[in-house]
Design goal:
This protein is mostly helical and 123 residues long. It has five helices and three strands, in the order H-E-E-E-H-H-H-H. Strand 2 and strand 3 form a beta hairpin.
């Protein structure tokens, strides 16, 4: 499952509270949210990551990243056409635009590389 993979990439040593680093937390299945039993902080796999406040699901993010990486491999520096990208993901242009920007920065030299690590760990 995508969320599990994201969690494994973000927290290789096990999920830890983003605020106090505690491993003592509960999980609210319905909201896919962890809550720290120590400091009561609530977070998800997306909190404070490059994907925060995104409307796309982790599943769609993986698909988008894969598409984007494939495109880069074929076309080098040319950017993915926005309309084509939106069509492939089945999202509106503004969403595709934002997603493309996030992917660019995530895959760039200063990016976290969160999505790349998720995808490359897949094999
Ligand atoms: Zn905490």
């Amino acid at each position: 499952m995508c969320r599990d993979r994201l969690a494994a990439v973000r927290w290789p040593d096990g999920i830890a509270c983003l605020r106090c680093k505690s491993h003592d937390f509960g999980f609210m299945e319905k909201r896919k949210t962890y809550h720290c039993r120590k400091c009561r902080y609530q977070f998800t796999v997306l909190t404070k990551s490059v994907l925060r406040s995104s409307k796309l699901s982790p599943q769609l993010w993986f698909e988008a990243a894969e598409e984007y990486i494939k495109w880069r491999a074929r076309h080098g520096k040319h950017n993915y056409g926005l309309h084509a990208f939106a069509d492939i993901l089945g999202v509106a242009y503004p969403t595709a635009h934002r997603a493309r920007k996030i992917l660019e920065s995530d895959l760039g030299p200063d990016g976290e590389g969160l999505l790349v690590r998720c995808i490359c760990n897949d094999t």
